[in-house]
Amino acid sequence: MRPIGRRGFVAGATGAALSVTGASDRAPGETATASAGAAESPAGKGPHRRSEFRGVWVATVANRDWPSRSGLTAEEQRAELLAHLDTAVERRLNAVVLQVRPTADALWPSPHEPWAQCLTGTQGRDPGWDPLGTAVEEAHARGIELHAWFNPYRVANHTDPARLVAGHPARLRPEWVLPYGGKLYYNPGLPEVRRFVQDAMLDAVRRYDIDAVHWDDYFYPYPVAGQVFADDEAYARYGGGFPDKASWRRNNTDLLVSEMAVRIKEAKKHVAFGVSPFGVWRNIATDPEGSDTSAGVQTYDDLYADTRKWVREGWVDHVVPQLYWNIGLPAADYAKLLPWWDAVVRGTGVGLYIGEALYKAGDPAQPAAWQDPKELSRHLELAATHGSVGGHCFFAAKEVAEDRAGAMATVVADHYPTRVRPPKERAQRVPASG
């Protein structure tokens, strides 16, 4: 995900800029097949699933989607939130992925972290209501799943700890925090950090009837030219036994994911765990098992996130790769990435839902393909030919509502003739930590 910085740009081999934005500032279920449970669409447009994931990301960081600005009254905030839920119903969607921990702060009364700045404009100030609790209740009243979206390590979109509210854990434990790329991050190499961020997120799992825990693509930060993520001290302390720092970093991310998978199921077995990674695991030129792409960012190498491993190990219940490129783009072709991800999940029991770049539709800064309101509809047509794809998630709520190019309306007309239920969650084993 990323229009604020999460939609960065990566240079492809062709020299073109590829947006890496996702739902990061971006579901449950058994793998569905294109034909399983299908019926003829009332609109006569071909197979229509009785269950399918149809999600929308609602980004709160920097007031991207909601609230529209900080400092609204509690009544105004609530009204805007309900409007997004109502729009989801109108668009025949069935899941809202709400960002509830954007910058190491919370959209619920957390005992671990302060109230989020996006609500009142002042981090730590009580907004006078419970946004997450309200979102869960009102989503369920509308027949919509509520997936709580957390960012594990991002602390602030600036590098000045003094700007954090007094009492913020990052101020109380400055040794946990590293500046990088104009932002502050918790250091993923510290076991106490990993435990703390898990505890902070699990408070919401235990307190609310959420349907899923959702993470986007932010683990180690996206690389910034000329800057170093200064975790040498942690590597010296904890990196023994690893051949290099990259392997140690990937293991740190593996531990975050595998441990959280176990702890979610221990808290509430029915709560799903999903991750929405940047769409390229590795390029084929780097690894013969990678995708036929030449993107400038590879999650395995640059974000230290072995997303394919998480699927194979069953640590996640579903994966939502951010395939934010058009069909035919040379460096990262949607039509080539889709079958790669289909093959990754095949036979694993992990659900596959595709992250879609609705925010690009009609944006004059985007390539010509995105000026065609049918581009996204073609994505869904192509996905229907791949048996592991169980649905889609759209970035993001503002565009779902505004739909400046008519791309969302076209998707609904072509593919969503009626409302359907989300995929039923598969029975869960408690995954082994590792």
Molecular structure report:
It contains 13 helices and 15 strands. The protein is an alpha/beta fold and 434 residues long. The chain has one domain (9-148, 192-227, 240-415): TIM Barrel (Alpha-Beta Barrel), CATH 3.20.20. α1 runs parallel beside α3, α5 (191-207) runs parallel beside α7 (245-267) and α11 packs parallel to α13 (407-415).
| Count of helical regions | 13
Please name the CATH architecture.
Alpha-Beta Barrel
Major sheet: 8 strands, parallel, barrel
Number of domains: 1
Write down the CATH topology.
TIM Barrel
**Name of the CATH class:** Alpha Beta
Strand segment count? 15
CATH homologous superfamily assignment: Glycosidases
What separation lies between the terminal Cα atoms? 27 Å
What is the residue-mean pLDDT, rounded to a whole number?
A: 90
Q: Helix/strand/pairing class, anyone?
A: alpha/beta
Q: In percent terms, what proportion of residues is strand?
A: 5-15%
Low-confidence stretches: 3-46, 427-434
Helix percentage range: 25-40%
Q: Radius of gyration over alpha carbons?
A: 20 Å
Strands ordered across the widest β-sheet: 5-6-7-11-12-13-14-15
* Dominant shape: globular
Summarize the helix and strand pattern as letters: EEEEEHEHHEEHEEHEHHEHHEHEHEHH
